[in-house]
Amino acid sequence: MTSSAAVEVTGLRVYRGKRLVLRDVSCTIPRGSVTGLLGPSGCGKTTLMRSVVGVQIVSGGSVTVLGSSAGSPGLRDRIGYATQSPSVYADLSVVENLRYFCAVLRAPRSDVQRVIDEVGLGGHESQLVSSLSGGELSRTSLAVALLGKPELLVLDEPTVGLDPLLRDELWTLFRSLASRGVTLLVSSHVMDEAARCERLLLMRDGALLADDTPASLLSATGTGDLEQAFLHLVRAKEAA
Amino acid sequence: MNTSILLATTARILNQFRHDRRTVALMVLMPSLLLILLRFVFNSEAAFSRAAPALLAVFPFAIMFIVTSITTLRERTTATLERLMTMPIGKLDLLFGYALAFGVVALVQVLVAVGISLTWLGLSIGGSVWLLVVIAGLDALLGTALGLFASAFARTEFQAVQFMPLFVMPQVLLCGLFSPREAMTPVLEWLSNVMPLSYAVDALTAVTTSSDITAELVRNLAIVAACGLLALVLGAVTLRRRTP
Fold this sequence. Notes:
By secondary structure, chain A is an alpha/beta fold. Chain A contains seven helices and ten strands. A six-stranded mixed β-sheet of chain A has the order 6-7-8-3-9-10, with helices on both faces. In chain A, α2 packs across α3, α3 crosses α4 and α6 crosses α7. The longest helix of chain A has 16 residues. Chain A is globular. Chain A starts with a strand and ends with a helix. By secondary structure, chain B is mainly alpha-helical. Chain B is built from ten helices and no strands. Chains A and B meet through β6 and α2 of A and α1 and α4 of B.
């Protein structure tokens, strides 16, 4: 099981300030899958993702990523990470941003054009990032995460503010990456994206409510859609 | 350290400047404009020649400090630093990349200021012009390094701006520009002795009055360079891959 898991989180506890934002979270993310991390804003999704990429100070538990402890130097060119707020330089053009991160990752220069095509930013190459629309901006940030040959992609709300057509194209891209063996952890606060994932991690208030496939979530809760399933789990937990 | 990543970082920062011409113009011209103003305030070449060497150290130092601390803080507070910290870039690659980029700008700034002072403003110096440029450039780099370091202690750009009076003004007051360092009360003289700008001003004053390269001059330069390097390394220590 260990060899097939891309990420293994065991008993993870994280404090931000005095607040306990992750309370003993444990989960396993299989390789070559698209796992959705869903839950309301403020439930700890970003903190969990930061722990996986190794930039979060954790107070307990362990996070193992691709066989090494999260944050190990050897993982730094094997993980692609897109933060929630776009992490690109506003005063550079799209292509200048990508060239810089490409150099940092020591990836081939041809990757720049590849990722521009993958996120559909063709025609905007020389545009300054500060003049892009919100959706173009988040796609630029996503493109950086795709540079090189990441084995694990951690994408924090990559589809926010995109029109439905683009969103669909990105999900197609995510699935094709997964079929090539890339593991994706994608967060979202909208439930209609959940159905597109192979596995779901449902979070609320710093704890995992479920770690399952969409289909078995529906059958286990006896509900017709994932929004209802989520509500069912929340109520069941509160009643307990 | 990885040279290609370091140079890529330098190129990236210079590219950012290229898109912000107004900032570049301000950085390159500001010390010169202040020196021109000073020249006409004194209205005498002799009086200007006495004060100008120290100010060739002070103005680039102060300006590079502000510009660097704000720029680095911007990197620290936006998500780009968090992303970089997940990538195979060393902290020193990033900081030296910054120092090199700002060093290039600082050198242009100093060349313009020295050029204008020596020609139009009638500054006369006894020593080597190139040594003057090297010292002033080193001093601007010291401002850059301290700015990088200071940015670690600011949470907002508003705070970073306030660090200018905190880090820079005491050094300007105690560097010997207003009153000779030897004439200060022991406490102030001691404070003056631990501030790197004092050594830069001493070195510049030495170069303008004589063409000898004395052991003291070399020592002063080494102190300025070492302080700059120390500030960069301390800056790297304050840069964290993991944050709360």
